Amino acid sequence: MMQQDHAKRRQDLRNIAIIAHVDHGKTTLVDAMLKQTGAFHDKSGEEAVCIMDSNDLEKERGITILSKNTSVRYKDATIHIVDTPGHADFGSEVERVLRMVDGVLLLVDALDGPMPQTRFVLKKSLALGLRPIVVINKVDRLNCDPHASLDKVFALFMELGATDAQLDFPVVYAAGRDGWASEDFNTKQPDLSYLFETIIRTVPGPLDLDDQPLRLLVTMLDYSSYTGRIGVGRIVQGKIAAGQQISMACPASQPRIRKVMQLMGYKGLERVVIKEARSGDIVAVAGLEGIEVGDTVSDLENPGTLPGLEIEQPTLSMEFYPNDGPFSGREGKFVTATQLRDRLYKEQQINVGLKVEEISGESGFKVAGRGELHLSILIETMRREGFELCVSKMVVITRQENGVTVEPVELLLLDSPAEFQGAVMNGLGARGAQLKSMVIGEDGRVRFEYLISSKALIGIKSEFMTFTRGSGLMHHSFNGFLPEGNFKRPRRNGVFIAKEPGKSAGYALNSLQDHGIMFVGTGEDIYSGQIVGEHCRYNDLVVNPCKEKKQTNMRSSTSDMSITLTPHRVMSLEQAIEYVEADEFVEVTPKSLRLRKKTLDHSLRKRGEKDDD
Known about the structure:
With 613 residues, the chain is an alpha+beta fold. The termini are far apart.
């Protein structure tokens, strides 16, 4: 990479990334920066809230899933801001984003201090030698202690091996919601000027290498139905213009010649078409057919490659099938295998951590991703677009190394109140997790560090939340491959399987609820082979939840008693995916989630069980 520190730097541009834990006010602060530099208004004329989390799912969950680029103009400089996802399932995205910037804003809550999730991204940014600025946010909260939070941040920097220059970080106190930043948290300022000034003063501008041959490293992908694949990245050196012929290659492939059909830069949240860009700019280049993350776009007469990017490999896989149940097409618009294939391959174009392959001889697809959240976000997105599909149980991807079967292992960081320490350790011990370290903080919370197989990690989130009564925090990141352990998931109880189609009746459910937990309420449409509840024993039971009470002329004091139904269990998408076994599907439609057996016909299922025996 032809970068010399004594080279001239651009003074009109700064590239920064924002790192923060969920709900520490990252997106709110960026929104305030956008509003103050251009009074951002959405189309309805009202000021938007959480502009950066533009996806409905992101707004609901309060998390950033996709990295987004935006730029704000302050005085004579353009500050290019990249919003990074904090969840480890999107970790491959984080690493790529950090290669595009020269500095990071570490956003920390004045009450909570740095959290496990912050640590993951901060460790990567310090290793890349980026200049940090610490922003202590939400200083207007009751009972907050900005000094204690700052001490914790300093201790975290020391622990992660920061250099002396990185430890000498500037501190900004801010209240993102009210849109002000200051050098002293007791002095409220009218706006965020102090934050902007600190960014321009601390973060170095990109090196001015316009006279060198073009080198652009592609770090993200996008897709347009008009121009095809779009490569997003930072120009390390040289210039690029629309209509220019370029060479495209990665360290392991031969160069290919392409033409830049369209060149786009960022202005606010919009992508704007530009004629040319120079070194240091972050641009989107359209027309590069076959481009992959980690490829280098270089000068045609003087081609070359930059060090590539290592993308984390998928650890979990699931099977996706079009919905072939009796209720297929009732709620969704897209129900065929062709529509499902097109959608999954389109997602693979831009979702780098995802792998899709067809299952030979069947109309299904094997989809591999970085984790439970990664795959469930994809399913939820498709569901909202109007797709109907069936998904199978999650399977951990293992591989052979030197004749030994190895499985993916994750580093799990937990944070919980001290009174739940015993329950947490018991639960993780049962899953075969290895305790690496345990620290009891001054705030009465315990921080655990575990090594745990991806197989044992499935379903742990809901269990951990139960142990800690909703007050625990967890974060996990891929650690490597180790020889396969002997962890077996605890055997689940059997299920109630509907015998025939119809509407569920209170009379039938009343007698069934004594023998297990119901998943359906009264008056719901049910089909043969659907799972309607969990049995209190290990065997599956074929039942009739549609059985009505027989009408008769005879009167009895007991038969006319009113029935009292226990509320049925309603599962979220993640819970349903964790619940199903190998012979079951989760049927996902825009309005409903149903559990069902893969083979709906009871007699065929019985025959299959006999053949297996």
